């Protein structure tokens, strides 16, 4: 029981941290499909957790774009083909 409550408290703490940080929240909403884009402040500036404006390096921004494209491509590759085609491939792998 104590372990379960500890896990729940940790999970709640992580959720609070995620949702209280504007950047993390935008990324989380994007990953859930609640937002079609990740909105960035221009020019490459963000507000950190302490509500201070900080500059985000261009390479960091580009790295994030590359990662988002990679995730999108993986998601698209997994969804290609019909349900039956995916099941046939899955069955061939298990045989």
Automatic annotation (TrEMBL):
Natural source organism = Eucalyptus grandis
Q: Which InterPro entries match?
A: DnaJ_C/III_chloroplastic (IPR053232)
Instruction: Output compositional bias ranges, type Basic residues.
Output: 85-95
Q: Where is the signal peptide?
A: none
Write out the transmembrane intervals: none
Q: Where is this region: Disordered?
A: 74-95
Indicate what this protein is called per its UniProt record: J domain-containing protein
Cellular component, GO, one term: chloroplast
